[in-house]
Amino acid sequence: MTALDDIYADYELLDADDRYRLLIDLGRTLEPMPDALKTDATLVRGCSAAVWVYPMPREDGRLHFLADSNAAITKGIIALVLTTVQDRTAEEILATDIEGALAPFDLKNQLSSNRTQGIPNMIALIRQTAERLRG
Questions:
Q1: Mean pLDDT across the chain, nearest whole number?
Q2: What percent of the chain has pLDDT over 70?
Q3: Phi and psi (nearest 5°) for 66?
Q4: Torsion angle, alpha carbons of 102, 105, 109, 114, to 10
Q5: Are 73 and 16 in contact (CB under 8 A)?
Q6: Max alpha carbon distance in the chain (Å)?
Q7: Are the CB atoms for 40 and 15 separated by under 8 Å?
Q8: Catalytic annotation, residues
Q9: What class, spelled out in words, does domain 3-133 have in CATH?
Q10: Who contacts 29 (Cβ-Cβ below 8 Å, separation ≥6)?
Q11: Can you give the residue ranges of every domain in the chain?
């Protein structure tokens, strides 16, 4: 089972309020992102809350992402998105069906449209980064 499968196994058993709490708790697991990296260049456009994503290419060719948000639930959403791509190569990221991996969570029906409108932009930024850094 992948980490995403583990998260979903818990998520599907919860009611709406507890699902919010699970996402918020997931956001708390993100490693801290230094304020110096929270710039206009790392800001995800089109999100109702501020979301920053910063790629850190590793020596082994994998990409590690730092991310943060000024809203707890949005921070949980970006943590969920990153679970699908964290520490993978650019090629693996580009081959990953991120939307498909997240589909079982049915976020559009679980959260307000304000909360979910930025998800495609988060995914697009990750894919653009992988494309740019593909070796």
A1: 93
A2: 98
A3: -100, 145
A4: -60
A5: no
A6: 43
A7: no
A8: 47
A9: alpha beta
A10: 79
A11: 3-133
